[in-house]
Amino acid sequence: MGVTMTYDGYQAFSFLRPGVDYPRIDLAPTFGRVPAYDLGLTPDQAERAARLLRENIVISLHEHPQNFPADMGRLGEYNRAGRQFTSYEGLAASGLTAVFDNLMDGTGCIVSHTGWSWEDTVYDIGMRRADLAKQSYAHVVQDLRDIERAHRDGTVGIVLSLEAATPIENQVDRIDILYGLGIRQMGIAYSEANTLGGGLKERRDGGLTAFGRRAVERMNRLGIAIDVSHSGDRTCLDTIAESSAPVLITHAGARAVWPTSRMKPDEVLVACAERGGLIGIEAAPHTTISAAHPRHDINSVMDHFRYCVDLMGIDHVTFGPDTLYGDHVALHRELARSPGFTEPPLVAPFEPVEYVAGVENPTEGLANIIGWLVREGYADADITAVTGGNVLRVLDQTW
What we know:
Layout: H1 43-55, E1 59-63, E2 66-67, H2 75-80, E3 85-86, H3 88-92, E4 98-101, H4 118-132, E5 138-140, H5 144-153, E6 156-162, H6 173-180, E7 185-187, H7 210-222, E8 225-227, H8 233-242, E9 248-252, H9 266-274, E10 278-281, H10 298-312, E11 317-319, H11 328-336, H12 365-375, H13 380-398
Parallel strand pairs: 1-4, 4-6, 5-6, 6-7, 7-8, 9-10, 10-11
Antiparallel strand pairs: 2-3
């Protein structure tokens, strides 16, 4: 369902020599790793979905659009080399106008989430920007004009993002440095507490700290969108109340649909919407499951979408699938082996999957979601809103 844009065939870091300048590691394929998903669209529905994808600004609020190792057992080696291989080919086939690219948050943290160092984060951003500078298809987004330009020119905008502000430690001016390096969206905490506030894995969430309030105010002044996806409930509510701009939940779902701390309770969702914010519906394996669809696939994901639309209003819901090119389930297994790394517990029975059918990678995610919305009879205006328009509105108020 994707469309081909002006991509010229550039491959990530092709200006360097594999095996000489960096370790040679076979990467997962961009296409064909899993079978294509059949939405069962009629020809008219398929044509309408393709038109909506082609003609409108379509934005994914949270992704990791890189090719990961074909053998996830080499994940540590891959990350220690400091190079994340953007799949320009996959993005070109996705139809996306812009993607919030979360950069893996520093070369150390995906090997062990005790990393989060300032040096690793700056290293990561610099490496990615060096590769982006060697090609002409993907552009780093500075403001809304860059997203509009990407739509007009048939290119893709990359919104540089971090899942947590942990690397700033207790130095608020580091937020300015990150802005200068191109960061336009940043989380408060990644599951564990930091100097700003509580994470969703903590037994007790003390909420936004005094330093956290200073950091929120600085992000508002600079124009960095704030994310609370991995923050504790109290920290979410405090951040939403403290921020002068709408707050994002870039990748999560509804706890009322699936009872785990990784999902957000109604109180947080309603507060987010009342202050003008957005939730991006998550699709990483074993997150947005539902009682109606306990085997995680696109239908489970859309159960969370429906619930959030009913609760928050359609103007406050979008999609942040949180996908990548490679075996996401194996990635989680590798992370689980890291010292001290724990995932929030799932408290209801579910059927494990090897991948999330229909939303497996950034190429198919938003394209299939648009097809699903067409199949289910949503109006063009509503589809345009939840796949890009709502994000543009909030960014206009934030940036």
